[in-house]
Amino acid sequence: MNTIITIGRQYGSGGREIGKKVAEKLGIPYFDKELLARVAKESGFCEEMIKNHDERPTNSFLYNVVMDTYSFGYNTAFVDMPMSQKVFLAQFDTVKKIANEGSCVIVGRCADYALSDYPNCLNLFIYGKEEAKAQRISERQNVTFSQAKDMCVKRDKQRQSYYNYYSNKKWGRADSYDLCIDSGKLGIDGTVDFIIDFVKRLEEK
Amino acid sequence: MNTIITIGRQYGSGGREIGKKVAEKLGIPYFDKELLARVAKESGFCEEMIKNHDERPTNSFLYNVVMDTYSFGYNTAFVDMPMSQKVFLAQFDTVKKIANEGSCVIVGRCADYALSDYPNCLNLFIYGKEEAKAQRISERQNVTFSQAKDMCVKRDKQRQSYYNYYSNKKWGRADSYDLCIDSGKLGIDGTVDFIIDFVKRLEEK
After folding, report:
1. Chain B contact for A92, CB < 8 A?
2. How confident is the model over A159-205, as pLDDT tens digits?
3. CATH topology of domain A4-204
4. What one-character DSSP code corresponds to residue A14?
5. pTM of the full predicted structure?
6. Does B178 contact chain A (CB < 8 Å)?
7. In the CATH scheme, what is the homologous superfamily, with its name and number, of domain B4-200?
8. Tell me, what DSSP letter sits at residue A57?
9. ipTM score for this prediction
10. Of A130, A198, B93, B111, which is most buried, counting CB atoms within 10 Å of its CB?
């Protein structure tokens, strides 16, 4: 049976590392930034441009103003869409294709929403305490603790805005996911083992 | 080592049943409605009145209008507080006393917030899919599925409003808790076992 694990995560929570280790231990493919190259290949969009729009919100207000002015009531076609929406749709398609190929771990990109009809999809959310996240980012990016704190807030605002705009759920609300874990409680490796245990319990059920 | 488990829960998610079973399996006391009798005994308030204010929000707008009109800038003392706030404070004290006595499971009543300084406090949130919750409530309360759906929405609004008013966190947001689980994924007993496994992993750490 295929098991698709999607991971939403707060910036600095270690969600990416956890996702990668879960995939390794289960021996299944892992997609985070890896998704972007695949989207580029399948959509024909340039990878650099996809990166620029990756998990960033559409400026929907400006978009709507422009569309209302020029569309005169006609349906706006793909060609009239802002680039961020085209990139979202291309990612959406690629996420579904990847899930159809077999078990995998997909991090971010509203993958849980794209796969909401898939019965064997397990949707996780990984988060952490403010201090722990800033500590991780300050070490990884070589910035001050205070700068790291600001980066965490800013990136999570972008992710939240992107997720809430494109999906029908709320980013970071427990009931948008099947299981949500503070990665600081058991640590990165402890959380990996705990998630794998959850997957095994589900498969046994 | 004492382990205090607090459980926030959506109405109809089975959080109460899960809390009770976790407490039984760990051989530790369980407090849900049981807390109210204890609060009555310790505070001197009548139990019926405590029940009426239990996990219901203060009408803070009206309260503030009245207090602004009559207090003329003086600090309002306990005697001037609305009854709902007095009940909250009494519950707050009792939750701390109970936690000081040893390991236990406490359901609701902002217990996680009251015990935010306790290092061995594990804060859980249990939730479920709309259909599953309405099904459970309709069977338990002998009401129609549609009535049960309405009850779920209404009760959760009260709980959310109570929690957000008295605590510094947001009810139902993943990062207000250590671990959040959809009880429908593993079922009631499966979720109980999974929580106990989490407690053991924490104790081993």
Report:
1. no
2. 999 999 999 999 999 999 999 999 999 999 999 999 999 999 999 88
3. Rossmann fold (3.40.50)
4. S
5. 0.90
6. yes
7. P-loop containing nucleotide triphosphate hydrolases (3.40.50.300)
8. -
9. 0.89
10. B111
